[in-house]
Write a structure and sequence with these properties.
Blueprint lengths: L9 H52 L10 H18 L3
Length: 92
């Protein structure tokens, strides 16, 4: 007679959990590196786009253009204000 097995044995469960743990230990640090690298790339690309915009405005206005740095708190405040204005006008 054929017996049917339901579920997992303890040895199978322990081996699967240990393999998943090893893969997590190996994968999490490299995932953090990828996230950090992508954030840096995004900031650099944003800076380059801003510089290209400043250049195009200088060409359009036929004069010099200034590229100034602003603090993160002020930038976040201006972004929230712009979002509020967009929401008021219906641009979501």
């Amino acid at each position: 007679m054929k017996s049917t097995q339901h579920g997992l044995s303890m040895i199978e469960l322990i081996s699967v959990v240990s393999i998943v743990g090893i893969l997590l230990v190996i994968g999490v640090p490299s995932y953090r590196y990828v996230i950090t690298s992508n954030r840096v790339s995004a900031e650099v690309n944003g800076l380059l786009m801003d510089m290209q915009f400043a250049r195009s405005e200088a060409i359009k206005e036929a004069g010099p253009s200034r590229f100034a740095r602003r603090s993160m708190a002020r930038a976040a405040q201006q972004q929230r204000l712009a979002h509020r204005l967009d929401c008021v006008h219906g641009y979501q």
